[in-house]
Protein backbone atom coordinates (compact mmCIF):
# COMPACT_ATOMS: atom_id res chain seq x y z
CA UNK A 1 0.00 0.00 0.00
CA UNK A 2 1.23 3.50 -0.80
CA UNK A 3 1.23 5.43 2.48
CA UNK A 4 2.69 8.72 1.22
CA UNK A 5 3.82 10.20 -2.07
CA UNK A 6 5.28 13.68 -2.37
CA UNK A 7 7.54 15.83 -4.53
CA UNK A 8 10.28 17.81 -2.79
CA UNK A 9 11.86 20.83 -4.45
CA UNK A 10 14.46 23.05 -2.79
CA UNK A 11 13.91 21.00 0.36
CA UNK A 12 10.19 21.74 0.56
CA UNK A 13 7.21 19.50 -0.02
CA UNK A 14 5.21 20.73 -3.01
CA UNK A 15 1.75 20.04 -4.34
CA UNK A 16 1.95 17.57 -7.18
CA UNK A 17 -0.07 14.99 -9.05
CA UNK A 18 -1.71 12.26 -6.97
CA UNK A 19 -0.52 9.58 -9.40
CA UNK A 20 3.08 8.58 -8.63
CA UNK A 21 3.89 8.08 -12.31
CA UNK A 22 2.87 11.66 -13.11
CA UNK A 23 4.62 12.91 -9.97
CA UNK A 24 7.87 11.19 -11.02
CA UNK A 25 7.63 12.76 -14.48
CA UNK A 26 7.15 16.17 -12.87
CA UNK A 27 10.14 15.69 -10.55
CA UNK A 28 12.36 14.59 -13.45
CA UNK A 29 11.31 17.52 -15.63
CA UNK A 30 12.16 20.07 -12.94
CA UNK A 31 15.74 18.82 -12.72
CA UNK A 32 16.18 19.71 -9.04
CA UNK A 33 13.22 17.95 -7.42
CA UNK A 34 12.69 14.39 -6.27
CA UNK A 35 9.77 12.13 -5.49
CA UNK A 36 9.53 10.22 -2.20
CA UNK A 37 7.07 7.34 -2.21
CA UNK A 38 6.48 5.30 0.94
CA UNK A 39 5.18 1.74 0.75
CA UNK A 40 3.94 -0.50 3.56
CA UNK A 41 3.74 -4.21 2.86
CA UNK A 42 3.35 -3.77 -0.90
CA UNK A 43 1.82 -6.56 -2.93
CA UNK A 44 3.70 -8.01 -5.89
CA UNK A 45 1.29 -6.21 -8.22
CA UNK A 46 1.87 -2.84 -6.52
CA UNK A 47 5.60 -3.38 -6.58
CA UNK A 48 5.53 -4.38 -10.23
CA UNK A 49 4.06 -0.96 -11.05
CA UNK A 50 6.75 0.75 -8.97
CA UNK A 51 9.53 -1.40 -10.46
CA UNK A 52 8.44 -0.59 -13.98
CA UNK A 53 8.06 3.15 -13.38
CA UNK A 54 11.32 3.61 -11.45
CA UNK A 55 13.40 1.02 -13.34
CA UNK A 56 14.38 -0.85 -10.17
CA UNK A 57 16.62 -3.92 -10.35
CA UNK A 58 14.71 -7.25 -10.17
CA UNK A 59 17.00 -8.71 -7.47
CA UNK A 60 16.48 -5.67 -5.25
CA UNK A 61 12.72 -5.92 -5.81
CA UNK A 62 12.83 -9.57 -4.79
CA UNK A 63 14.60 -8.62 -1.54
CA UNK A 64 12.22 -5.74 -0.83
CA UNK A 65 9.14 -7.93 -1.25
CA UNK A 66 10.40 -10.31 1.41
CA UNK A 67 11.10 -9.14 4.92
CA UNK A 68 14.01 -10.44 7.02
CA UNK A 69 16.91 -9.38 4.83
CA UNK A 70 20.39 -8.73 6.15
CA UNK A 71 21.55 -5.10 6.29
CA UNK A 72 23.27 -4.18 3.04
CA UNK A 73 23.92 -1.54 0.44
CA UNK A 74 23.87 -2.55 -3.21
CA UNK A 75 24.74 -0.33 -6.17
CA UNK A 76 22.95 -0.87 -9.46
CA UNK A 77 23.32 1.04 -12.73
CA UNK A 78 20.90 3.86 -11.93
CA UNK A 79 20.09 3.35 -8.26
CA UNK A 80 21.12 2.31 -4.78
CA UNK A 81 19.31 -0.25 -2.66
CA UNK A 82 19.78 -0.30 1.11
CA UNK A 83 18.37 -2.58 3.77
CA UNK A 84 18.49 -0.89 7.16
CA UNK A 85 17.82 -2.28 10.63
CA UNK A 86 16.82 0.68 12.81
CA UNK A 87 16.98 -0.02 16.54
CA UNK A 88 13.84 0.75 18.55
CA UNK A 89 13.78 1.18 22.32
CA UNK A 90 10.43 0.59 24.03
CA UNK A 91 10.58 2.38 27.37
CA UNK A 92 7.36 0.85 28.73
CA UNK A 93 8.79 -2.67 28.55
CA UNK A 94 12.48 -1.72 28.66
CA UNK A 95 13.16 -3.74 25.50
CA UNK A 96 15.17 -3.13 22.38
CA UNK A 97 14.15 -4.48 19.00
CA UNK A 98 15.09 -3.94 15.39
CA UNK A 99 12.83 -2.92 12.55
CA UNK A 100 13.51 -3.35 8.86
CA UNK A 101 13.46 -0.65 6.23
CA UNK A 102 14.33 -0.93 2.55
CA UNK A 103 15.32 2.19 0.62
CA UNK A 104 15.73 2.64 -3.14
CA UNK A 105 17.47 5.84 -4.24
CA UNK A 106 17.77 7.22 -7.75
CA UNK A 107 18.65 10.62 -9.16
CA UNK A 108 15.08 11.91 -8.80
CA UNK A 109 13.37 9.51 -6.42
CA UNK A 110 13.34 7.67 -3.11
CA UNK A 111 11.18 4.62 -2.47
CA UNK A 112 10.92 3.41 1.14
CA UNK A 113 9.45 0.02 1.99
CA UNK A 114 8.31 -1.22 5.40
CA UNK A 115 6.98 -4.62 6.48
CA UNK A 116 5.05 -5.62 9.59
CA UNK A 117 4.29 -3.34 12.50
CA UNK A 118 7.50 -1.36 12.27
CA UNK A 119 7.28 2.32 13.12
CA UNK A 120 5.93 4.48 10.33
CA UNK A 121 8.20 6.99 8.66
CA UNK A 122 5.82 9.89 9.28
CA UNK A 123 8.07 11.15 12.11
CA UNK A 124 11.11 11.04 9.85
CA UNK A 125 9.26 12.91 7.10
CA UNK A 126 8.03 15.52 9.57
CA UNK A 127 11.52 16.05 10.96
CA UNK A 128 13.00 16.40 7.48
CA UNK A 129 10.21 18.68 6.27
CA UNK A 130 10.88 20.93 9.28
CA UNK A 131 14.49 21.35 8.07
CA UNK A 132 14.42 22.04 4.31
CA UNK A 133 18.21 22.51 4.25
CA UNK A 134 18.62 18.77 4.71
CA UNK A 135 16.05 17.78 2.06
CA UNK A 136 17.60 20.29 -0.34
CA UNK A 137 20.49 17.80 -0.68
CA UNK A 138 18.17 15.56 -2.67
CA UNK A 139 17.16 11.91 -2.40
CA UNK A 140 20.20 10.88 -0.34
CA UNK A 141 18.97 13.13 2.49
CA UNK A 142 16.28 10.54 3.19
CA UNK A 143 18.89 7.82 3.62
CA UNK A 144 20.86 10.15 5.89
CA UNK A 145 17.83 10.71 8.13
The CATH homologous superfamily is named: CorA soluble domain-like
Helical proportion, percent range: 25-40%
The secondary structure category is alpha+beta
CATH topology: Beta Polymerase, domain 2
The arrangement of helices and strands along the chain is: EEHEHHEEEEEEHHH
Oligomer: single chain
SS elements, strand count: 9
CATH top level assignment? Alpha Beta
Radius of gyration: 15 Å
Number of domains: 1
Taking pLDDT < 50 over at least 5 consecutive residues as the criterion, the unreliable ranges are none
Q: Which strand order do you get reading across the main beta sheet?
A: 2-1-3-9-8-5-4
Supply the CATH architecture: 2-Layer Sandwich
What amount of the residues lies in strands?
A: 25-35%
Per DSSP, the total helix count is 6
What is the overall pLDDT average?
Answer: 88
Major beta-sheet overview? 7 strands, mixed
Query: Gap between N and C termini, in Å?
Result: 22 Å
What would the principal axes of the Cα set say about the shape?
globular
How are the secondary structure elements laid out?
Layout: E1 2-9, E2 12-14, H1 20-30, E3 33-40, H2 44-54, H3 58-65, E4 72-75, E5 80-84, E6 87-90, E7 95-98, E8 101-106, E9 109-114, H4 122-129, H5 132-135, H6 140-144
